[in-house]
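Task 17 of the worksheet. Students: predict the tertiary structure of the chain below and write it out as structure tokens. Keep your answer in the requested format; marks are given for formatting as well as content.
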Amino acid sequence: MSDELLTKSAVEVGELIRTREISPVDVTRQLLDHAHALNGEVNAYVSFRDEQALADAERAEKEIAAGDHRGPFHGVPMALKDNLYVAGETTTMASKIHRDFVSADDATVVGRLRDAGIVLTGKLNMHEYAWGIDNNSPHFGAVHNPWDLDKVPGGSSGGSGAAVAADMSFISLGTDTAGSIRIPSSACGLVGLKPTHGRVAKYGCYPLAWTLDHIGPMAKTVDDAAAMLQAIAGFDRRDPTSVDTPVGDYRGALGGDPAGLVIGIEEDYFFANVDAEVERLVRARIDDLVSRGATVRKVSIPALAYSEWTELATSLSEASAIHHRDLQQRPEDFGEDIRFLFYLGELFTSVDYLQAQQARRQIKRDFAAALADVDVLIAPTLPVMAPDIGSAVADLNGSPVDLVDNFIRFTGPSNLTGLPAMTVPAGCNGDLPVGLQIIGKAFDEETVLRVGRYVEESDPMEGRRAPTGA
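Model answer:
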């Protein structure tokens, strides 16, 4: 098989497996060989499961031959972020403290992917305990962006983003507390979907901040993201934040055209202090939708003025509570960057936290009011471009700005509100991809995905792919 196979989307590969044009064993072996060969450069994987993966692929091949085809991912090899538990196997959270942790149970999403027939090839690198956005791990090393190996891939799901962009996994899952699906997806030129809070059960995912955490797909195409959401969505009573609501027909929702679509634009927050080329590319994609029949309506979300403080007070307080005991007993085993953040989180008072939740309710109300008259909101995913590995600052139109603050500035509000949000490629700024963010109404992932497909149809990347890949 040629290396071109590895560049295909997960759904495309799944269809070739279903029709028995390719063998899941052969494609798994080819992907593992490619991932092993590149991992020294990209550092996307923290562990491989070659023998188990090939055994799973052989099982899938026999099932399909016997007429037991389970869906678009049956026999498709993929790797998962290393904070999702796999029963009987190590899940490290990219940490020293949990380096040898073994769960007795699969995460809900892992169990559902097993039911879908996936072939799990290994676990992917991440920022320690998912609390960071550059994926520069003191314990497992930095992940490198496949578009430019000197650049950060975004985080905390940087291993997932890099693996998919470098064709080391056909698709993956990320977790998102302030943008950790969308940030690396944007920086690596992928589609990344954070579903509505409660849509995807989080049982068996190590928490960062329980009221903000989400799990969702990181993929090469919108169709892949829709198919993955179809596979993992649904209620699980083991997760107290899971919502018992019907799962949509996400792939079936893709289609039609933008005629009649109403796009909301919030200029004061989402288009303020943005890299000029990022803004140009995002507005060009909006103009394309308008040329195809969409309309634009300006909206106002005044409470966004409080979103950055609210996100900080909520996430730091909840994360510090989760790690409080280890922070007291073995602080030296945390990476320096997250140890500082956990100590910072312990400085917030109960008054601070409760006031943040009051602000959060107002932010939710303001978003609901803005979305009442539009179908989706569109904004840049990131206001700045990915910097070099090790840099704490990014460039904003010639001025240095704090990297963390700016990487989460446009993604964090959707975690506070729990609304579905997706990034899709909008083009390239020089040699690096730029993401466009689509925010929708609660539990209306169908519309978010459909609008993402409209953007994708305009071919904003013009066929460009990460140079470090198959």
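Marker's comment: The two ends are 12 Å apart (CA to CA). The longest helix spans residues 307-329.
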